[in-house]
Design a protein that fits this description.
The protein is of the alpha/beta class. It is built from 14 helices and nine strands. The longest helix has 20 residues.
Amino acid sequence: MNVSEFLERNFKHFNAREVLSAAKSYRQFVSAEGNGKMMVTLAGAMSTGELGISLAEMIRRDKVHAITCTAANLEEDVFNLVAHDEYRIIEDWRALSVADEVALRDQGFNRVTDTCIPETVMRHIESKLLVLWQKAAEEQAMRMPADFMFDLLDDDDLVQHYQIPRENSWLAAAKDAGIPVIVPGFEDSTLGNIFAARVYEGKVANHQAICSGTMQMERLIHWYKDTSPNNPIGFFQVGGGIAGDFPICVVPLMMQDLKLDIPLWAYFCQISDAVTSFGGYSGAVPNEKITWCKLEPEAPKFMIQSDASIVAPLIFAYVMEM
């Protein structure tokens, strides 16, 4: 049986039922009849978890129409593209001792759960980006963080270093499809730290190379305003944090601060392992977003408390089997 048949036969209750319901609703939302457009947000380390294998195909099949991600997910998609075979997998990562961690550090690895990213790939990508940053800073031509990475994907010299098929890169798929990639909080990433260091030491002339978060929000306003007259817009959130909170706020911004007559988000699904708690955002239930003028009260709403690296590919597979 295919994925759809498997889910429909077996996913009957609890989180499993929520997964199937969310997948069915997503499929309908982006169908010809639903005519919806979907924003997908990526927190955590989904790129290192190789979510790009399924997400890139979703983008190519016109099931994803905008991405908001942490800067870590932006850079780690490119790291994985050019250094995948140099990563080290630690199968018994829960058993690592402090001494084991020190050994990995001294060998030049940065661990993300069971996957260790080599420091060498970060310096390789830095050497490419430094030239682009310097040019943009000198010209005071602020650019989106993703735009610099798109330039890297056009770098013929980098192609020889690809260690996985380009088709497994969600960022490459987004570039090819021309969909917006919003990256709030760029400074909270390896490359963001490196950029700040190079400005500090004078190798990059100033901070005027990279768009601020508010400039990215303005671009998101334009995208939502241009898209919403003809299409309902949905929100598929992987994880929590800034990747989800930043873009969902564009609707109350437009309604309350710009006084625009704009439709709210019309579909919402979040996959998170965060526990619903007092004052917590990542585990907040969808209904909480209604009073903030983020979600239509009638919008389909799903909260799947599970591992996104397992659940998201299942939902994507279901959606693509339309």
